[in-house]
Amino acid sequence: MMLGSMLGTSTDTDQGAYAYVVSTFEHCLTYLGSGSSNGLDWIVDALDTINTFKARHAKLQSIPAVEATVKKVAQHVLQSLRNTPAESLSSQVLQLTSRLQRYARLFDAHEALDTLNVSQTLIALASPLTRHLQRQVDPAVASAFVDALCTTLRSNDDVIERILAVVWYLYSATTSDAIAGAFQAWLQGLTFEQYNHVLVSLAALCDQDQRIATPDQEHVYLSLVSVVVSSYTEAHKGNAMRNSLFYLVPKLSLLAGRTRSVQSLLQILYILVLVSKDKTLTILPIHVSLILSCVLQVSHPTATDRLTLDADQAHAVVEAICHVLQSLLLNHRKEVVSGPLSTMIGVLQSLLHCFRTAHVVVEQAPPKAIPILFAHAPLQCAAPVARVLEHLGQKKFAGASETQHIVAKHAPFLLMEYFAIQQNASLCIMDPALKAALLPGLYSLMDVCGPGDRDLVMTGLENAGKLLYKNFHTEWAENHKYKGQ
């Protein structure tokens, strides 16, 4: 705090505090040779404060009182990197490396701090240090090393693959938020072309079965994809970035179609939410189709052989699917409605079967049901499905009149599916709580339908279903038609 307060001009600074902090900073140099962790930690914190202050005060050109001290720290770091075996490097030296690189960039002090030699020495250490950390995991050193490497190489086009490889290996050894944070900071500092290169490189990795052959390897890969997809900035946006992003989605779809890990499946669905949540990213109906085709891997014929779910995991999958669908409707509704709306309707029809209660032994799932989810029916997670139905049907979400008209032509088939389920007395949705949870979504579908659309529902039902639908229609007209909109 005191260091932050004294980093102003001489006219508005407490000179006593200024002199005290500078003196203390210089005193800590005595600890560099001894390797005292306390002294090194203090210098790391001091450099963090200086860098943060400079980032907030762009007009600040230099801090003469600490320049000589920072230069001595840089000399010590360079000697430590050159003379210390990889297995003996401390996390503090690596932390100082990254802080000095930031300082040099902020104050344009690359020559004064000899950052070129620091960079070359750090690059030479990359392979031996990575091998050491694979043999003997030290999360603090691993995180500091990734931070130093990313900070040092952030502007070099020819080292992207190397950084990806290092981050991959170290993240495999120790899943660390600090490593992910350093990786994210590096990504956000990349140019437009470099960020696209990272996306394409990650997509290519998905084709290498030997690199992504086990659930653990899938987890590492998908974790890194999540970081990359969530790290693009306004400077990265454009058609090229969008195309690279949607070059990655089919690769994820292939992975979803072969994985044996429920956790990997959930990670993929989470990535689809990240891809679809940005309203300002211009996407086309074909891109929505790619996202939905990835969702449909949940119903892949081989899924029952590959994936073993318990009830909690089945709930999580349903909620994740609904999160993807809701994100698409909220952020890219026009592209959904003008393109693959029928595919989304099919997914929602399948989800309705998850809430059926069997009164007889059912040897196989109904044709439209998702087998791995139907095995745990009735699932107690109707509310997320109802929310998607509400976003699909309510007029306040419907947008332009032509969009509303298209939704109205599809909504009857969702209502028809629900009442077709209910007309089967031996395999219907019986739980009152589930029926109550679905009701707002069903009412919203009725809201968006015209009289002819509502009458269409009757044509696909048997007598029992028609009676149920008539009663529902009456309740909707009396309790919701005018009050609920």
TrEMBL record:
<dbReference type="GO" id="GO:0005730">
    <property type="term" value="C:nucleolus"/>
</dbReference>
<dbReference type="GO" id="GO:0042254">
    <property type="term" value="P:ribosome biogenesis"/>
</dbReference>
<protein>
    <submittedName>
        <fullName>Urb2/Npa2 family-domain-containing protein</fullName>
    </submittedName>
</protein>
<feature type="domain" description="Nucleolar 27S pre-rRNA processing Urb2/Npa2 C-terminal">
    <location>
        <begin position="269"/>
        <end position="485"/>
    </location>
</feature>
<dbReference type="InterPro" id="IPR018849">
    <property type="entry name" value="Urb2/Npa2_C"/>
</dbReference>
<dbReference type="InterPro" id="IPR052609">
    <property type="entry name" value="Ribosome_Biogenesis_Reg"/>
</dbReference>
<dbReference type="Pfam" id="PF10441">
    <property type="entry name" value="Urb2"/>
</dbReference>
